[in-house]
Specification:
SH3 type barrels, five-stranded antiparallel β-sheet, mainly beta, 2 domains, about 140 residues
Length: about 140
């Protein structure tokens, strides 16, 4: 489950309906009824926060979000999207990372989910971090 307060337009989540889970993108939020509209590529449907799950951040998800990866030769890797950077001290270890855009540097010492990276990106750049394609 994802906290309702964490959800923003464009966030990529897993939506569950009648036991089936599908990756989708948040397209609307009804704060009054605490419902979230998610487009799974098949349809848009309203879900309660209890029906939404986070997606672990990994290399595949970074690439879906449009990042390119460069290995630094010391075991670390850097993901880049325009001038936004994500540095992992150890390749494939998303539990510790440094993210930055211009003068804003953030050090994260615990794994984050895709929607959390999207929210950091928006806070820092004021631009939505949308996937190239959701499914």
């Amino acid at each position: 489950m994802i906290k309702f307060s964490e959800l923003k337009f464009g966030d990529v989540v897993i939506a569950e309906y009648e036991g089936q889970q599908k990756e989708g993108m948040v397209t609307d939020i009804n704060r009054e009824d605490k419902e979230v509209c998610v487009d799974t590529g098949v349809q848009e449907f309203w879900y309660s926060p209890e029906q939404l799950y986070p997606i672990a951040l990994n290399d595949e998800q970074m690439r879906k979000l449009g990042f390119t990866m460069t290995e630094n030769g010391d075991g670390s890797v850097k993901y880049m999207k325009d001038s936004f950077r994500v540095l992992l001290p150890k390749k494939d270890d998303f539990s510790v990372m440094e993210i930055w855009w211009r003068e804003d540097h953030r050090y994260l010492n615990q794994p984050i989910m895709v929607h959390e990276l999207q929210n950091h990106y928006y806070q820092m750049t004021k631009v939505e971090l949308l996937p190239a394609r959701v499914h």
